[in-house]
Design brief:
By secondary structure, the protein is mostly helical. Helix content is 87%, strand content 0%. Helix 1 runs antiparallel to helix 2.
Length: 68
């Protein structure tokens, strides 16, 4: 289960890297729209993983309470 906690922070780091890439390349002729889309997807996946992890932990707690 530690895997889910690590990957959500990897997505967050990738999102910030893509935002930095977008800002640094914004004045160039081809706009970095791919970096914007990747940053948005990385932030979405971070929040999705966080929400999914919380639901999974709640379900696990409920199952442990019903077994007792």
């Amino acid at each position: 289960m530690n895997y889910l906690n690590i990957t959500k922070y990897i997505y967050l780091a990738i999102g910030f890297i893509m935002v930095y890439d977008t800002i640094s390349k914004w004045n160039n002729d081809p706009k970095p729209y791919l970096s914007i889309m990747l940053a948005a997807m990385a932030f979405f996946l971070f929040f999705f993983r966080s929400k999914f992890g919380k639901k999974f932990e709640e379900r696990k707690k409920q199952q442990n309470q019903t077994k007792s």
